[in-house]
Specification:
Two copies of one chain form a homodimer. By secondary structure, chain A is an all-alpha fold. Chain A folds into two domains: 1-50, Homeodomain-like (Arc Repressor Mutant, subunit A, Orthogonal Bundle), CATH 1.10.10; 60-201, Tetracycline Repressor, domain 2. Chain A is 77% helix and 0% strand. Chain A has helices at residues 9-28, 31-38, 42-49, 52-76, 81-98, 102-112, 116-122, 130-141, 150-166, 168-175, 179-201. The N and C termini of chain A lie far apart (54 Å). At the A-B interface, helix 1, helix 6, helix 7, helix 9 and helix 10 of A face helix 1, helix 6, helix 7, helix 9 and helix 10 of B. The structure holds a DNA duplex (30 and 30 nucleotides).
DNA sequence: ATTTAGTTTAACCATTTGGTTAACAAAAGT
DNA sequence: ACTTTTGTTAACCAAATGGTTAAACTAAAT
C-alpha cells in the first residue's frame, strides 16, 4: 500500500501492523497481509519483532500509550469537576475522531486476554482514580455537585464518550443513519455530552 | 464439558458453539474446540451446520434475538420517558448480568463485519427509533423534559447501560477493583444510572 | 427380515499460517 | 582491502485448521 516516507523498515512494519491489527484484531490479522502492506518480505517481520505476539504487543502498547494520557486529563488536572468534564469531553471526542479504531481495538483485545492489563498497570502514567475521588467528595461536601460515587461518575463519563465509537455499526443501524449523519452526531456530542453530565450532577 | 441433558446433538452443538464463539469471537474460535465441548466428532458440526460461517451465524442471530427485545422495551412501550428509563435500566442490567458476554460479542462481530447488520435490519422486530423520537419531542413540547435530540438521548441510555459490560477489564483496572466489587458496582447502577439520566433531562 | 433414512465416526485432504533457513547484498568497522 | 555486522529475499517446513468421504451403526418403516 501507500509507503509515504516510512523511513526505515522497522517503522513501516509497525505502521502496517497497526493498520491490520486494529481493524482485524489479533486473531483475524495475518502476518502476510502486514508484510504486503509494509511492502516487504514476511521474514522481515520476524527479523524485527520475533513473533506475531510480540509485534502485536508493540502495536497494543502504542495504542494504549496514546489513550492513557487522554484519560489522565480528567483524573489529574486541577480544574473544577465541571471544567474537567467540559474539557475532557470536547478533547476526547476530537481525539477519537482522528483514531476511530482505537477504543474498539483496545477493548476487544482486553476482553480476549484480560490478564494483559496487569502488565500495563505497572507502568507509571497508568490512569488512577484516587485524586479524582477526593475531588468529587470534596465538591459534594461543598455542595457544588450532587452526591454520587466517584467510580460511577467516572464510568458514566467514559461510557458517554467512548461507547458510540465502540458500537458505531449498532448505533448507525438503530438510528437508521448513514456515515455522514453519524459523524455529525458525534461532533454535536462534544457539547451535548458535557451538558448532559453536568446537568445531572450540578446542584 | 458438562452435557447436562442437551437432548439432541444439534442443540448441544449450538450450545457449545455459543460458548466458544462468544468468548473467543469468530476468528479465535476453533471447530475442534466446539466439537470437544459438545462431546461429538468434528464432522457432526458440518453435518448439522455445513460450515463455520453458518454455525457462527446461527449463534449470532440467536444472540441478537435475545438482545433486540430488550431494546424495543425502551422504544415501543407506552409509559412516560421517565418510567421507560427506570424500567429499562433496571431490567437491562439484570439481563446482562445473566449474559455477560453478549454485548461485547455482538459489538465485536459487527465491527468485524459491519455489513452483517443489513441482514438483521430486514427482520421485523429490529429496533427502530421513530416512536421514541415522537415521544421525546412531545414531552419536550409539554415541558416535561429539557430539550434534547432523541438520538442523543438514546445513545446516552445505551452507553450508560451497555458500556461497563463491554469494557469490564478496563474499568476494573482503572477503578482498581476486583470481580466482587465490580459486580456490586453494576448492581448499584440499576438505580444510579436511571437517576443520572433523569436528573439530566427532568425539568 | 430387510430396506431405508438418518446419525456418527475415523481417517484423510488441501490450504493456510506462523515461523525458519540459507544464501546474498550492502554498510560499517578495522 | 577485507572482515564483520546488518538488512533482505526466496524457498521451505511443520503444525493447525476447516472441510470431506466413505464406511459403520442405529432405529424406524416396509
Amino acid at each position: 500500500m501507500a509507503k509515504t516516507k516510512d523511513e526505515n523498515t522497522e517503522n513501516s512494519i509497525l505502521n502496517a501492523a497497526k493498520n491490520v491489527f486494529q481493524s482485524k484484531g489479533m486473531d483475524g490479522a495475518r502476518m502476510q497481509e502486514i508484510a504486503d502492506k509494509a511492502g516487504i518480505n514476511k521474514a522481515m517481520l520476524h527479523y524485527y519483532y520475533r513473533s506475531k505476539q510480540l509485534l502485536f504487543e508493540a502495536v497494543f502498547k502504542n495504542a494504549f500509550a496514546l489513550l492513557a494520557p487522554q484519560l489522565n486529563k480528567v483524573l489529574n488536572d486541577d480544574s473544577s469537576i465541571e471544567d474537567k468534564i467540559r474539557n475532557f469531553t470536547s478533547n476526547y471526542i476530537s481525539f477519537i475522531i482522528k483514531h476511530p479504531y482505537l477504543p474498539a481495538f483496545i477493548i476487544q483485545e482486553l476482553n480476549r486476554n484480560p490478564s494483559f492489563i496487569l502488565k500495563l498497570k505497572q507502568n507509571k502514567g497508568f490512569p488512577n482514580l484516587e485524586k479524582f475521588k477526593k475531588q468529587v467528595n470534596l465538591e459534594i461536601e461543598q455542595k457544588l455537585i450532587k452526591p454520587i460515587h466517584a467510580e460511577q461518575l467516572f464510568i458514566n463519563i467514559m461510557a458517554l464518550n467512548i461507547f458510540p465509537f465502540v458500537a458505531t455499526p449498532l448505533i448507525k443501524a438503530f438510528a437508521n443513519i448513514n456515515d455522514k449523519a453519524f459523524k455529525q452526531l458525534m461532533k454535536d456530542r462534544k457539547e451535548e455530552v458535557a451538558d448532559f453530565i453536568i446537568n445531572s450532577i450540578k446542584i
